[in-house]
Every structure is written in C-alpha cells, then in structure tokens.
C-alpha cells in the first residue's frame, strides 16, 4: 500500500501549490466580490464568465499545469499534446494530492481545466469515443474552448437508481430520437457549454443494465431547451450552474452514440471511479481550507477575555476536525491506489466508502468552521457557506450516501456468503 | 408541570391552523415563485414586499388573529386595542402551540404580526418604554404600519459575549451620540423598517454589565447608513433581510434611551426568554413540516422497486426524526412553562437548553428531509433549503450553542457547589 | 398535557426521596462491597440475598412505600390490602417521578417491591389472572414472599420478533405440556423465584398473533431446569440474575393458562406499556445520578492546574447531559400521560419512542460520567459500570431499538397514507 | 507515504495468520469456557494461568513467531537471540499488520509474547536499561519466564496529567525509598509478575517535567502490597488483571533507577508511541472480528421473515462499520509510518490522533455487533462483551481522549501562530 506520488507528480503538486498561492489566492476574494455584485444586480450578466478565469487558464496552461487529471491509462497522445507537463497522464494516486490542492479554491479546478463534469466527459470520450467524436468534442474540451454537461438525473424518477431513467433515446434508422427532461445538469449555465452527454432509455425490454444508451447531443440541436437554472441552498454556482433541460424530439446522428446502444451502464461504471476520487480529494482540500480558517479565527478572536480556542470545547473541535480530515484523506488515497492497482471492479467498495465518508466529513468540518466564525461564517464574503453547499450536495450527487452504503454492505456480506 | 393551553388559547390555535390551511398554504408556493422571479431579475424590486403579505395581514387582523404574541404579563391595554382576540395577552405556554404552527410557513409569522425581531422590540417597548416611546413606535408596530430592527451584533468583536459591543452611545447633554458598525441587523431590508433598537457602549469604566445602553434610533436620522445586505448560505430573506448598518455621529434625543443609560443588559435579559421560546417553537413547526414532506416523499417515491421508506435505514430515520421533534417540543413547552411560573431567572437553564437542542434538532431533521428528496431537496421550489438555513442560523443568532452550553453547565455545577 | 402528579403522589414521591436519602444511600456502598466480596469468594453464596434487602423492605412496607407501581386501573382491592399508601393505585403519571427516584439506586426497586420483572408479572396476574391464580401467586408476590420470572426470549430464534418463539405449550386434555429453551429469564437466580410466566407456541397454524399461549409454570415442576446464569458484560446482577432455562416435557394443569390458549399477544400488549415507562423513568433517575457524580467529580478533581470542569469540552458535556436528561424525562412523562389518557393503543408510538430514546440517552450520559472519573469510572466501587450495563441492556430488553423504530415509522407513515 | 510491509514482515504476517487459524481459534472458545468455570467457582484458581497459554507459547516460539514487537531501532542482538525470526526487529509499519491480527483474539498477544504492558516495559529496558538491568529483567521477560507491570496511575490524583503523580521515589544514599499507592497496574494478578516499573516523585522543586523518576521495583520487595484487583465493567481480565498496589517504605538500590533520577518523562515519551500503535492496531483487528461476527449473524439470523441484514438500517450499519474500520486502519498505519520516518516527536499528533479515533471506532463497531446479536451479544460465550470493555477502557488507558485532543489541537494551532 504505497500512496507516494511519483517524483514528477510531486513536482507538479508543488508547482500547483505555488500557482494557487501566487496566482489564485490573491485574486479570489475580489473575484467572488465581483460575482456577488453581478448577482445583486440581477439579470444574465452573472452567467457570463468573468475574464479572470480565461486569464488564469492561460497562465496555468503556459506553465504546463493543464489537464492534469488526464488518466495515465487512457491519456494516450492527448496528455502530450494538450497538457500534462511531461507528456503522460498521471495515476490516480499521483493526481490525488493535486486534486486536494485545487479543492481549496472554487476557481482552481476551472483554472487548471480539471473541473467536473468536463473531466468525466473528457474521460468518457478518451475511453469510449470514436476518432471523430474525439476530434469534434474532446479536443476543444482539452483546450477549454468549449464546456460540456452530463444530463442523466431526472426530476420525475428516483435517479439514485439509474435504471429508473425514463427519458428516451430511440434509434430510428441512422438517427437517435431523444425525448424527456433532465435536471441537475451541471454546467449548462455556461455560455460555452456546447455538448451534452445524454443518457436515455433505448430498449425497455432488455436486461436491466442494457436498456440505456449514452449519446452526444450538441446543445444547439433543435428541441433542446434549458428550462431554468436550479439553486442549491440559494446558490446558483454561476457561471456554470445546474439546470433543468428538456429534450423534445431531438434528433442526432446514430454516430453520436457512445460505445453502442444499450451500453450506458458500461460507460457509467468506468466513468465514476476516478471522478469520485477527484470530488472527494477536492473535498479534503476544502475541509483543510475550512479548518485553517477556523484555527486562524479561534486563535485571533477574543470572547469572555480569552481567544476562542481556549473556550469550551473549541480546541477539541479543532482536534476532531484534524482527525476527520486525515482519516478522510487516507481513505481517498486508498481508493485511488485501489483504482490504480485493481481497477474499477476491485475498487468498488473503496470508492463507495469515500463517497459516503468524505462529503459527510467535509460538511461537518465546514459546519464547525462556520460556527467558529459567528455570523461571518454564513455570508458570501467568506468561502465557508459555498464550501458547505459543495460538501452537502456531494452527499447526493454521484449517488446518495444511502446507495453507496448499500453497495458497501453488499460486498461486505458477500465475503462470508 | 401542566403544558395545556387555556381553552381560549386552544381555540385561537385551531383558528390559526385553519387560517394557515385555507389562506396561507394555498398561496405560499406562488408567493415564493414570484419572489424567486424577482430575485432572478435582480435589482431592488425584491426588497419591495409583495402585496400578498398586506392582504393576508388584513384578513388575519379581521379574524382577531393578530399580535397573538403579546405577553399576558405586559400586554396591558394593548392586547385589547390591537389584537389578541379576547382582550388579554397569552402566557408563553398558551402561545407556544400557535408559534409552532406559524413555524411551518415562512410567511405566517409576518401575516399574524408575530415575526422577529418586531415581536422582541414590541415587548421591550411594552415593558420598558415611556408613554411617548410607546405612542410613537409601539402603536404603529402593533398595526404593522412600520417595521423595526435590533442592532446589536458587531462585525469587529465576538458578539457572543455581549459585553464586547464596542459601538458607542455617548450621552452629551440632552442628546445621545452614536457611532459604530452593526451587522446581522434583521429587518433593515424592508422599506417600512423605521426604527432601530440600538445597543452601544456608554460608560467603559462601569461594571461589566452596566456599560451599555439601549437607544431608539429612527432609521432616517442623519448618519445612519445600511451598507449592504448580508446573505445566509446565499439567501437574503427578502424583503426583510439582514444588513450591515453604520452609525456616524448619529444624534438622537436623550428621551430615546430605553430604561436609562447603562441598563441595556437588564433589558436584554427580559427580552430574550420569550423570544427564544418563539424561535424554538417555530423551529419545531418547521421540523414537523420537513418530516411531513419526508414521509410523503418516502412513501410515494420508488427506487430499486420499492418505496424509499422500505429502503435501508430510511424508516429508522423517520422514527428518529419523530422522536427528536417530540422531545424538542416538550422541552420548549417546559421552558415556556418555566417562564410562566418562575420568570426569566428561574427559566435561565431551560431557555438555554432549548436554544441548544432545538435548532440542532431542526437542522438534522431538515437535512434528513432534504436527503430523502434527492436533488429536489436543495432547490428553492421546495421550502427545505430555506428551512435548513433558518435552523442553522439559529444555532448562532441569539447566542451560539457554545455560549448557551456554558450557561447550562454553570447552573448545573452550582447545584453542588 | 398535564404532567403534574396528584397531591397524594407528590407526597409519596417526597417520602420515597427521604427514604432513599436516609435509609438506602447510607448503606448502599457497603451493600455492594459485601456483594463484591461474596463474588470474589465464588460459589453460590452470591446468589443468596443479603439480609439488608429484607430489612429495608420491612421498613419501606411499614411506611406505606410498598407496591407503589400498582396501576390505578387494575389495582382494585390489592392496593389497599398490600400496599400503596392511601388505598388506591397510582396513574402512570403519578408513579413516574417515583420510578425516577428508585432508578438512582440498584437496590431501591427491590426495597419498594417495584422491581422488574415482578411488577410486570403482578400486573399480568391482576389484569388477566383468575381468582385462584391471584390467590396463589399474586398475593405472595405483593408481599415479596416469592419472586417470579418471565420466560419468553429464546436463544435459537430472533426474539425481537415475538412470533418466532418456538418453545411449545401444547394443550393435552386438562394439561399443558411445555418444551423448549428460554434465556435472559431475569430473576431465576433468586432462591425465592418460584413462578415463571412462560410463553410458548400452541397452535402453529393459527393466525400469526394467536399461536402463542402464556402459562404459569411453578419453578419446581418436574422438567424445569436452570442451565446456567448469564452475564452482561461480565456482571451477573446477583442475587436476581438472568438465566437459561430448559423445559423438558413439563406438565402443568390447564388452569395455569393465562387468559386462554393462543392469547399470549393480547397479554404482551397490555403488559409492556407501563413496564417500559417504569424502565425508562428509572433510567432517567440513573442518568441523573451519573450526571451528579460527573459534576461532583468535575468540580473537585484537578488536572493541569484547573478543575476538570474548566478543561476542554467538559462543561459542554455536562450541559449536553442536562439537556438530554431533561428531554428524556419529558418524553417519558408524555408517554405515561398518553397511557393514562389514551391507553396502550393510543400510546403505542409514545412508548416506543421512549424505549429508543431513553436507554441511548442513559448509555451516553453514563459513558460521559465514566470518562470524567478516569479509571475509577470502570471499577465496581462506583455504580457507573453497573449503570452503563443497565442502560445498554435496555437497548435490547423489551425489544431492540431497531424494532421500536420500526413501530414508530409505521405509525408515522400511516398518518399520510 | 508507503505503508507496505517488507517482504519478510509480510511473510511473518501470513505465518501469524495461519497460526491464529490453526492453533488459537480452534481452542479459544474452550479456553474462555474453562476460565468462566473457574471464575464461577471463585477463589484464586482463576488467577493461575491455564496451561494452554504456555503450550501455545512454546509452539509460537518454535515457529519463530516470538517477540515480533521488538523494534528495529532498539532490538539489537535481542531480536536474533530471543525472537523475531530472521534476526532483526521490525519497523512499526512492518509490525502493524501483525498487531492487527493478534487483536482478533484475547489470547494471541500473550501467545506471541507481544502483550502490554510487557512489551512497553521490555522496550524501556532495551532503550534505557543498563546491562545489569537488561540481564536481570529483560532476558526473562523476552523468554516469558516472568511478567511485569507498569505502576504509574494513582487513585488520588488526576493521572491524565502525569505531572500530578504524588507517590514518592526519594533518593537516600545508594537507595531509593518508595511510598504511595498506584492503581490500574495491569498484570499484577499474574503469579509470574515479578517486576514493576514504578514512576514516582523525586524532586518536587525541579522543573515540571524533571520531577519524576522511573525505578525497577521487584514485586517481592518488602513493603509492596497488591491491595485488591480491579474490575472493568465487572470483568477482571484474569489471569493478568489490574490491581491497586501500595508501596510502604519500599527500598531498592539506586542502581534500579532507569536512565537517572528525574528523567521519567523522557522515558515516558519514548515508550508511548509504539505502544499506542500496538494498542490501536489490535483494536482494528478486534473491530474486524466484531464486524465479521455481525455480518455472519446478520446474514443467517431471521426475523420478521427476512435475514437481519435486510431489516431497517442494518445493512447501512455494516457499511458504516466497514468505513470506520478502514479509516482507522489507515490512520494507524500512517502513525506507524510517521514513527518510522520522523520519530516520536514528528509523530506526536499522528499518535494522539489514533489514540482518540481508534478506541472510539472500536467501541462503536463492537456496540453495533452486540446489538446485531441480541441477548447473545452481552454474554461471555461470545467475545463481544470483552471486546467492548477492551475498546472502552482504551479511551482512558494511556491518556484519556480529551488529553489527546488537547495535544492535537495545540499542534494544530501552532501551525498558524
């Protein structure tokens, strides 16, 4: 069980750290203030990315800190061409500490072109895309020229059970006809979001895991409509956002199908392991950031004549947060290492474990940090409220806690069956 | 230990319930949708109360369901003149079930003129105001012609320790000169908010609890400025809102002082007991509403071939929520009964107990209800996200959990000293 | 919702409190030391009750503090003849504060002849017994001349589902023939334990809740054998204890059947409500005792130069314990009041709620108190280890937490069905 | 961060696993049954080790599975002479998986001569002992010819603060005179326990961490008396046990001092890191054993027509236990690796973290496993009750949770000071 990153990955990690400290942290508060001002002002301006993002992306790319998420296994020539400094992809274990660092900042994943859902969609294209699909969509994504969305979850069915998906993707000759409504489609608020990975029901009579198909649907296809943007606890996560998208008799060429009709679950399996490691590792970074803020506040703010850290259970809360974060990080590294050494199948329990443990940990650590800040903890001038929302929503996104606990329990009981 | 409401209070409770079901519930979703639309549109429109509120207030007042919060002890002639049907105030025990009902709806407290911080400010005026102060401010408040704010908490000091307040209220001849910055001043967003109860430092050399003064500051006094509105997890609670208010050489007549210079703590003590009972009882109602939604969802939504309530720990979660709510309600009734029978001093531990237990309970129950709803739980179309924010912020407002635990522990250890 | 005891019950409560303080507390540590010595010495001596018990029982009875558990509804003439001072039984609400007091001491329930399972068995005889059954078994039980056991749970089936009981009680002519093994039969260690209430399967083909029968089985019947005594976390709860009992072709007259063949569930329903209130109210008293010890320790023991209560989260732990106990007490009073006003059926959820909430609360409060005592907390010289075992085992006895949560959830979901 | 054991350690681990499965597991239940019978019979027989232990020790030693705990850093020639197969000690990372395995069985640590407190005492002798001290005490300990105790904690002071120790070790000429009372001295029940490591106050005026001395006190020295054996939740952990020991004018030669007068804290620091890793890793094994029992029970026991694992939250409980155990194991491996790579000082927070996290985790997992077993979970025929006691007492032994949280918080706040 070796969680050490390769020397090259360790070097990249340090360079990402420096970039964060010198390029992102100094401008982050201003960025959020500017965004808040746009938000207060209302209308659509808030959905137009502020120029800072592109500027930082340019710097990151120039330093070779670009597309670092590209998985060694599938990166192929793309790593050399569009990114990862040094010419090949990183293992999950290598990438994990980088993901942790980018989790400290809401901007960072975008700056390094390592943000969900684009990373997951790029992985799918890498792994399952045809040359044409890759040329048309993967290459501009790797260059951040366009953005993408993953449209799977539906408002009308319990989407925690992915076999429930009822939107249809019917093959008619050399076309696929798409109908239905999707929501929580992250990224659809962004003006550059040009391509949707759509999951729909193709053959209701097939075996439960062979009914659905994944299809590439360009956003500007006739019949595609973003109905409205969703809020998470009052936040809209502009300029990416999460939306409700309806598809009415949308027609795309059969060539837009990924892997083949009825093979959506095959793709979903492969897609989710690394993505969950990324999400969870970013949450570890988020929790570290929150703990740092809590400690700084606790040592500098005075009440009843003493710094907060000397009052009541506050020091113990800090200790508990430290323990929780360290346990969570190790568990994510363990899942990354399992993915690297045993693949998706062997890492099934490990990945579900982090998906339960880490967002819950982050939610609690951030909650503690908010409480340590008094009223300041809730307002948008500090990143804690947004951090809480991020942690909380990841107890639902990519499968609710309860479903992952079910997966773990099933594998656990099998051991003695 | 008799928690039964008087027959008159029981009757009022039933009438409030009917009003909620017939007048408020049917229009509530539309109200929030309209508000959301204004919010998305941006600008100041969202800070203008929608006409529905005044309309419902008229109906409630016509039915004698008005100012029900008026405390029997201090209501005096005002109950008869402005409100509580039957001509006298209610005890805390009587009012508690009414507060619970109004907690189910974000609108209801305003509709019945029973919303914080106006209720607390009216109580202060009732109990400590001069005839002139009452004529000028209490009477229009009782008629909902104006709204008020309580400006105490400050961004620059740990306000959990109220002796920290550093904004000044200096007596100069027959004037009081006010300087400083306050925040989390609830209600200042409302265009009718005309009067602030301000707490400031008058005599830094006096005994720790005799340094501060409460002063009535009309909002339109020269030097008063609402700097900006604050968000709680991205929400602004329009049209009331919470703001940062600065006071620069603000001068008001000495006659605006409440009770007398240096007597702010005396007022604060008396003000907070009933207010905390109201807050907590409303949270019990909020949690009941959330549990009802969770149960309805769990019994009607299907995943993996079964209703959610049959999956994993969901039924146990519902049971735990039921237990938690029932325990919380009883604890609040107990605190109300203590206030009625032993007064603020005798109820000190009981009131701090509910202030710790109930918001935490509500936060957890709402969190569970959100999880049961999947993605729908986070969006503003359901009241759960706002409910969570309400519960969470009450772990801070009116004193953070940690301070109240300190009060309880102190009283507990005194028993054996 | 009136939880006030009647004046007579309040007076009895005060007299029980005085008796505890003057008669029991001063001798309790010695009693346990003597018992520990017998235990260390080994052999059967420890199963012989120490004379102190009978002595204290005599005093209690002389003061009319005897059989106070007798339920108003069913006490009939027995209350006047054998006990409750004043000539009639108490309501559940009346008795609850008395049960709380007796819960502070492991001895007290026995001293007042109010200990499980004798109380439950006496209630069954009162409610369902024939005149002959009452004359033979109830009268000596009311006088503490004999003790009884309830033999229901079986080692070989999940007894949380009472319909699983597989030991048989077959009617053959005017006899009942009993076979099978029972365990966790509390009280069988006591030399005066003369009568078992046995629950067995009579008609496997009947409706699920009409298959079982309750039968009175004198302990000295041929074929009855106490196989061995069980330990709970290393404790045997001498001299009462919990045993495994086997029944091999045990024959008793048909007249020993309670209520009638196949009617065991009817009896079980009626038996359990008040018994659970008693158990839970005693646990509230136990937790109060533990909290008192914790506070005394925290205020008098010094580490790192300060009393423990000033260190870390200790004061907050004390506050949380106070809140938890007060909530639990109110919930039990609520269940008692429900039983009094709505009967077993109406109190179903309320009784299951306390059965989940109170033992868990007590387990946590005692755990905290142990921790506050350092190593001293674990040893038998302090009552904390035994208190923990008592609380923990009540998360299983009378139905595990999980089954009660199921009951509550079922009733909750029915509300909206 | 490489947690992989060396190939040699991996081989030893497999051999220990085989030994456990073939030599220990088949006889363990009988061993405990025999012990229980002795216990019930009373008297001193239970303090005489059953012959099985020595027999198994012989086998283990013959296979080179002996003294595996010997730390690479300090093992020196002793590893080759008395033990670790292959001739040198293991690193903490190497030994951790072995410790985990031995934690599954209460017997195993003794069988492999790897049990506390002998291991800690042997480490102290290795590291700080003179040649004479090592010849006299270390060599027979390494051969399990004698046993030892560590007498530090005192009943009359809060021993969580080790500077409180009040028993005295006064240097008089070439002797040390010892007075005072110690408790929770583990191992003093064993007839072979011949040597105590005693910690006493030598110079009350010295610097806070230079006042105390560690002295070797042969048990048969005049004035040493084991007053009584202590119980933990009713268990005595025979034949080792925990006792209260009094020292009355006990005189030993100055040559028995370890390292030098006033240097006890230096020794304590070095002693505790590896010991805590051992304890915690054994608890991980204990929790794994408990989870295995829980899963086996949950899948084979039926209630309400379904296996327990299909009922309510049981599957989710199993998943949560799996997550908790895996996180705990990783955290212990992390602490072991820190000790190996950065030494005691660098591992300070990591070691305190496991000391908080792991016993709490084990207590909860075992509690869940007990609950899954119904009544069977509490009785001594299953190892769960003893496992719970072991986990619970380690929240106190070697420093209570609260003190370790304090250490962690201090180091955390230093980062930003």
Note down, in words, how this protein is organized:
The structure is a homotetramer of 417-residue chains. By secondary structure, the first copy, chain A, is α+β, with helices and mostly antiparallel strands. Chain A is 52% helix and 15% strand. Chain A has twelve helices and ten strands. The first copy, chain A, has helices spanning 7-41, 51-62, 72-82, 92-102, 108-111, 118-128, 131-142, 264-300, 314-346, 348-372, 384-393, 401-414; strands at residues 147-151, 168-172, 175-186, 193-201, 212-218, 224-230, 242-253, 257-258, 302-303, 306-307. In chain A, the strands form three sheets. Chain A has a four-stranded mixed beta sheet. In chain A, strands 2-3-7-6 form a four-stranded antiparallel beta sheet, with no helix packed on it. The first copy, chain A, has a two-stranded antiparallel sheet with strand order 9-10. In chain A, a hairpin with a 2-residue loop joins β9 and β10 (306-307). In chain A, α6 packs antiparallel against α7 and α10 runs antiparallel to α11 (384-393). Chain A is globular and about 75 Å long. Chains A and B meet through α1, β9, α10, α11 and α12 of A and α1, β9, α10, α11 and α12 of B. Chains A, B, C, D: This is Acyl-CoA dehydrogenase family protein. Chains A, B, C, D: One of its GO terms (molecular function) is acyl-CoA dehydrogenase activity. Chains A, B, C, D: Its cofactor is FAD.
């Amino acid at each position: 069980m070796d969680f050490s990153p390769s020397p090259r990955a360790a070097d990249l990690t340090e360079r990402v750290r420096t970039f964060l400290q010198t390029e992102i942290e100094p401008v982050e508060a201003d960025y959020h203030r500017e965004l808040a001002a746009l938000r207060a002002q209302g209308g659509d301006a808030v959905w137009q990315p502020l120029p800072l993002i592109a500027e930082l992306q340019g710097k990151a790319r120039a330093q070779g800190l670009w597309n670092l998420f590209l998985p060694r296994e599938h990166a192929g020539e793309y790593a050399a061409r569009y990114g990862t400094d040094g010419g090949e992809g990183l293992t999950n274990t290598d990438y994990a500490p980088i993901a942790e660092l980018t989790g400290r900042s809401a901007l960072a994943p975008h700056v390094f072109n390592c943000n969900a859902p684009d990373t997951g969609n790029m992985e799918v294209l890498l792994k399952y895309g045809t040359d044409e699909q890759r040329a048309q969509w993967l290459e501009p994504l790797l260059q951040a020229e366009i953005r993408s969305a993953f449209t799977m979850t539906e408002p009308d069915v319990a989407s925690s059970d992915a076999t429930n998906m009822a939107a249809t993707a019917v093959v008619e000759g050399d076309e696929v006809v798409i109908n239905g409504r999707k929501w929580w489609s992250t990224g659809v608020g962004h003006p550059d979001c040009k391509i949707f990975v759509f999951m729909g029901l193709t053959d209701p009579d097939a075996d439960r895991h062979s009914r659905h198909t994944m299809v590439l649907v360009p956003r500007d296809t006739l019949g595609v409509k973003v109905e409205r943007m969703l809020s998470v606890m009052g936040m809209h996560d502009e300029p990416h956002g999460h939306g409700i998208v309806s598809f009415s008799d949308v027609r795309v060429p059969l060539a837009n199908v990924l892997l083949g009709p009825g093979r959506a679950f095959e793709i979903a399996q492969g897609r989710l392991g690394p993505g969950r490691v990324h999400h969870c590792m970013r949450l570890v970074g988020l929790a570290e950031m929150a703990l740092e803020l809590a400690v700084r506040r606790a040592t500098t703010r005075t009440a009843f004549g003493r710094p907060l850290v000397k009052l009541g259970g506050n020091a113990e809360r800090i200790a508990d947060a430290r323990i929780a974060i360290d346990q969570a990080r190790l568990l994510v590294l363990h899942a990354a290492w399992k993915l690297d050494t045993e693949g998706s199948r062997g890492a099934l329990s490990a990945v579900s474990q982090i998906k339960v443990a880490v967002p819950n940990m982050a939610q609690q650590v951030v909650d503690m940090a908010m409480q340590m800040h008094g009223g300041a903890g809730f307002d948008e001038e500090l990143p804690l409220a947004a951090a809480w929302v991020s942690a909380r929503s990841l107890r639902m996104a990519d499968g609710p806690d309860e479903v992952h606990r079910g997966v773990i329990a099933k594998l656990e009981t099998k051991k003695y069956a």
